[in-house]
Amino acid sequence: CPKPVNIPEMVEFLDHLTNPAPPEQFNVLIVDDEPELARLHAATLESAGMICQVVTAPEDVLSVLERFRADLVLMDLHMPDCSGQELASMLRQIPGYVSLPIIFLSSETNQERQFQALQAGADGFLVKPIEPRRLVDEVRLRAERMRTLRSLMVRDSLTGLFNHNTILQFLELAVANARRNTSPLCFAMIDVDHFKLVNDTHGHPAGDHVLMALSRTLRLRLRDSDSIGRYGGEEFAVVLNDTGLKDATELLDALRTDFSRIQFQANGQKFSCTFSAGIATFPNCPDPRRLTETADHALYNAKHAGRNQVAT
Ligand code: GH3
Ligand code: MG
Ligand code: MG
Ligand code: MG
């Protein structure tokens, strides 16, 4: 059996989030020592719009998974060099694959042995031969459910932006990349000014509306390579890859202007909002913790200096 390799935690997972596949289009890795059978299952799933990759040697699974971002693994149980059961429990030890759905597709009909295989950490057991329609339905059902779960785990429900934990994971990944490529990076924290007053004056639903408008403003101007998250209540965080302090300050200032120009309306009353922001840079701040502390401190200074401004 292949040994678990040290794939950087979350990389696989986060890549999935930045480049989501079209809905319904799932990537399925098929592991089976019988090439004809594997290709038959692949053809069945491909005819339903899925993208399949076949692996007939278990020792190739890890290297293929690093290139092919599988939504689900369809795994044979009985294979000469390494059983599907061993392979599944090995995958479960790798942080990036803890939640990857694994379904056994095997000729094994003994229920005791099926159960043992499931205990390795698999999500289902299908018996060969299988009707094509059933195979498609089973795979789609589990892949869809996992996408929904992942989305709930990583996104904020009001704005659809990444949640607090996820944006911090992106920051960690971004710092590692910036260090490797010796490129700059900025981390910014944004906080709506006097937001409590917005709620108190115009009502909580109007406040929610403001938060959604701010998230749209951020999405419109930021690049695909940047990551945006809702850090807390009315606080947002952005990771700007490959960006120096001057560009980041200009960008945040442009966003500040965009946002301040939005006209809101609640109960017949018009109003507008502003935000303050604090920016920290890598490599000045050499690690994620220093970046968040420094951005937070800069934000505090922006508030203290009168709000509606960007501080560094
Ligand atoms: P400052 O300019 O110093 O940031 O003042 P502030 O009023 O914005 O800050 P404060 O921390 O006093 O108030 C934040 C408010 O944000 C309080 C909280 O009820 C509100 N809030 C947090 N999450 C949400 C949300 O999801 N929706 C709405 N409508 N309000 C929220
Ligand atoms: Mg076999
Ligand atoms: Mg505030
Ligand atoms: Mg706040």
From TrEMBL:
Catalysis: reaction(s): 2 GTP = 3',3'-c-di-GMP + 2 diphosphate
Record domain GGDEF: where: 183-312
Cofactor: Mg(2+)
KW Ribosomal protein (keyword) present: no
Positions of post-translational 4-aspartylphosphate modification: 76
EC id: 2.7.7.65
Domain Response regulatory: 27-143
GO molecular function, one term: diguanylate cyclase activity
GO cellular component, one term: plasma membrane
Alphabetic keyword roster: Phosphoprotein, Two-component regulatory system
Record GO biological process: cell adhesion involved in single-species biofilm formation; negative regulation of bacterial-type flagellum-dependent cell motility; phosphorelay signal transduction system
Name listed for the protein in its UniProt record: diguanylate cyclase
Species whose genome carries this gene: Thiorhodovibrio frisius
Included stretch of the parent chain: 261 to 572 of 580
